Amino acid sequence: MNRLAILVAGLSVITGACSDDSPTAPTAGTTSTTTFTVALSPANEVPPITNGDASGSGTATIALTVARDGAGTITSATANFQIAVAGFPAGTTVTDAHIHNGAAGSNAGVYVNATLVSGELQLTNGGGSITKNGINVPADRAAAILANPAAHYFNVHTALNAAGAIRGQLGNGVVAPGSDTY
Q: Is the pLDDT of residue 161 over 70?
């Protein structure tokens, strides 16, 4: 009996020492989309637009879809852009549109190109709209936009205002709990 008690006790120690403490298998990645709705105004450009394009306005809806690995790191991203403009003078040519990495009141270089080609957004009676889908966004830039959307702006450029005619910041940095829309 004594030997049986010792054997059971020994097996208990060995079993406890052999418990499954191995690392867990990597979890599958995830995909999520954050949508930014941006009001565009000539007053937001730096400096504010006061020439013929000063009557223009618009809205950009940017859906940024990111893929993350099991550790949560963004591995790839794409953006869909819906751009609508209005109030421009007859004959206005929209030349391009971009996300820039700059806070309100500052200008910065192009960060994400919406791939709009000059004249592609046709304006009828001073307004028009276009959708550009599946635009590649470098993973590090997508991460920076999501980390601080207010430090990024979207603007639309015209032939008259090559540096930008209407502009708006992507977000104010505050998101409602459970929301992924700015």
A: yes
